[in-house]
Amino acid sequence: MIQLKIEKFTIFKGRFGVNTVLWKDAVFDPNVGRNVYDGVKEVFITHGHADHFGDAHFIRAKVIAPKLESNMVEDPTINWRGLFNWAFLPEDFVTPYFRGKGVRVDDYAENYPFCIPLPGHTYAHVGYLVENALIAGDSVYPVEYWREFGILYYTDPEMMIESLYRMLKLDWDYLIPGHGEVFDRREGTKVIRENIRMIEEIDRTIFSLIPEEGIREDKLVAEMAELMKVRNVKSIIVLRPPISGHLSCLYRRGLIKAEEREGYVVWRRF
Ligand SMILES: [Zn+2]
Fold it and tell me: Which domain, by its residues, includes 234?
């Protein structure tokens, strides 16, 4: 198993490339797939996606998660429903990242002073600033993920960008993202700025796909799927939340409006 030691932190590369971080008697985002948690007393979770708490159910420790995402940690199918307009999304169509066993949450992350709100990827996502490391979960993605997938999962691009700027202002020497490599301050700063740039670029791309005469929402999703080379049902289902996030932000900025046309939702420029 890949294991990295940085000062008092041990980082395991878990399933789906998740960085599981051991520090003293605490673990953050446990998803190694086997037991490396001897002596662990507290499990900290950054957000309600099962790839970030896959092992929590078998660790005999106190479980801590963001208050408003505790329901998804306790029952991951709530997140599946969110992906499918609150109807029950059959498991066959759920991305493997979101499948996993729930665990009871004992305390809320917000009760801990080193918890930093970093919403955007999900609505109540948090990071943990522990000693000189920022355990950032999915509030920042490795640059190679952007290159590979084109667009990544988040539900509010403006909150995502605000959180990225907040991360730049925090005092850390190491940035430990939810997936991929661990960065020092210099590299981490570059990666954060690149994330901001990518989200802004996607925002412009989506806006450019909305003509004055309007585009059907399903057609817009199809065009983005084409651009991002998404070719399966599971991936299209997880492509819709970030697109909805951009539509919501463009609307709130007064740039686009929606109307009904022959039963379709059509988005058009103001
Ligand atoms: Zn996530």
Answer: 209-269
Q: What is the CATH number of the domain that holds 251?
A: 1.10.10
Enumerate residues with CB within 5 Å of ligand 1 (an ion). 49, 138
Q: Give the whole-angstrom CA distance, residue 90 versus residue 68.
A: 24
Q: Quote the ligand 1 centre to 200 CA distance (angstroms).
A: 20
- Sign for the CA dihedral angle at 123, 129, 134, 137 comes to negative
Q: Is the pTM of this model over 0.90?
A: yes
Whether residue 130 sits in one domain with residue 41: yes
Give the CA-trace dihedral at 229, 179, 81, 103, to 10 degrees: 160
Q: How far apart are the CA of 207 and the centre of ligand 1, in A? A: 25
List, for residues 60-92, the tens digit of each pLDDT value: 999 999 999 999 999 999 999 999 999 999 999
| CATH code, domain carrying 127 | 3.60.15.10
CA angle 239, 244, 245 (to 5 degrees): 100
